[in-house]
Fold:
Amino acid sequence: MSFLELRDITKRYGTLNAVSDVTLSVEKGEFVSLLGPSGCGKTTTLQMIAGFVEATSGSIRLDGRDITHAKANSRGLGIVFQSYALFPHMTVFDNVSFGLEMQRVPKAERKDRVDEALGLVHLSPYAGRYPRELSGGQRQRVALARAIVIRPPVLLLDEPLSNLDAKLREAMQFELRDIQRKVGTTTVMVTHDQAEAFSISDRVVVMEAGRITQIDQPYRIYEHPETEFISRFVGKTNLLPGTVQAINGLAASVSLAGIPVEIDAGGLVSGETVTLCVRPEKLRLIAAGQGRLPGRVAERYFLGSQWLYHIDGPLGTLMAVTPNDGSAPLETGVPVGVDWNPSVVRVHRGRLAEAPDPTLEAQ
Amino acid sequence: MTRNGPLALIFHTLVVLFMLAPLVIVCLVAFTPENTLSLPTRGFSLRWFQAVFHHPDFVQSFWNSLWLALLSATLAVALAVPAALAITRWEFRGRGFLNTLFLSPLIIPHLVLGVAMLRLFALVGATGSFGWLVAAHIVIVTPYVMRLLIAAITGFDRSVEQAAYSLGASEATVFRRITLPMILPGVTGGWLIAFINSFDELTMSIFITSPSTVTLPVRMYMYATESIDPMMAAVSAIIVGITAVAVLLLDRVYGLDRILVGQH
Structure:
């Protein structure tokens, strides 16, 4: 049995199912992220684990104990809130010490453990300050120290980094993972930021409309998204609608707006509509007249380590990303050939209901 | 901060003068050695203050008012804290009604309240009771407390309480250690404004005080209808002094901006 187990957890508000039949097993010491757009039920799921929201049905077991209906203050979990939720009228030391006080830890031990926790988050010199005297990143660390000092069986992080600016967020991601490894606490993090989820999680749980759509290692989710939604939500992707023309043994020939493309057959039948997904960094831009598709550079964006190109072609606009290797980028307007390795193409059966929303992908 | 132009500066000075002049003049008159209300042009004297302290009615009324204001402000706060928490945080039937009910004494003229209370006291046979006087004052000061508390509680981050709760605190502990300290500026500010309003209340109190419960403003009013002498100014100066001390104390401890503007 796993350390933390959610079984068929459902939360209903009136007729609305905020969370439906969520089943998830988290191993001891694991770092798991719940990833999804806002309103997908990830925060509600976290709050049910925390005990702030009661599950309508289903069960939550922690270390073999059923905590589905246990009160939040008897679960002993460490929680870091999006707003940090520090006690504004207490010093950093008192904030961190509060949980130990509630556990009636003797004063001397309390001091040692608070010092240790503050040391872990590099805030020892700030013990006497008040939260309002700290920067956003420092408040974040206090919140983390306050949550881990009680040595919780599970650490819950609710969008812990979303209030920090981009540079600090990245630094804190690695630090968070580093601290989590040091203390070895089982961690469940909620985030809408896939980069955050991917970079520091052992496993990522993708949620959509109150349901789990895929649970896997970050790399596997990125490379093998199980649904079209995931391939759109996780990273950028080119979605190419097509029709299966013919099956030749293991290969299938798909027509993309009249242009034939070979893919793995994988159970497809002739005449079926499919959507091919190709990540922008998997597209190769080569000399005009070569490759699988013709195209023309419509726009280019400099991303520092990479170039992002918009390529106009017979299938509409494709995104292609090439590493910035120091050579001159392609000029806008020049004709190019677009090529890819057949093994990088992911196939979804059926056609897109509507064109992907670029703002959704950008997340 | 933008600097004021000369015209604005003159205007602001006039407004401040207009507001402060009566206070300053009354306080000055209190020190006059003369027998009439006049500015102390021929030296200062404390004789009118002595007169107040040797006037048993005034001393009695002062203690009446002080106890009345302390009790009604404290009880109003005790009543308003749970009410404001409930109204601000929970959706329940009758929430709007309750909110309006608590604030309604603000829009009912004190004169009307006075007549109504007089009739009520007569009905329940409570004429002259100090306890019922306190109750009547609670009615008129509670709206002020409610306004400040609702301002303090609105915008309160509930996750702070959830954090304390998740760290193992009981609900009572969360209230005592987290919620109450965080809304304390609103509580204290509400208490002070309630205290001042009660200490100062005349219109309603005229109807419902009995000879043994006459408050200081009522005593002053009764006295002034018969004769006007500098003792009135001395009593006024004492009231101004007490209020000023209370306000200064509060400013020292919390900062008036924070309390009255509702910033944390």
Summary: Chain B has a mean pLDDT of 87. The domain at 55-261 of chain B is CATH 1.10.3720.10 (MetI-like fold). DSSP finds twelve helices and no strands in chain B. Chain B touches chain A through 19 residues (CB under 8 Å).
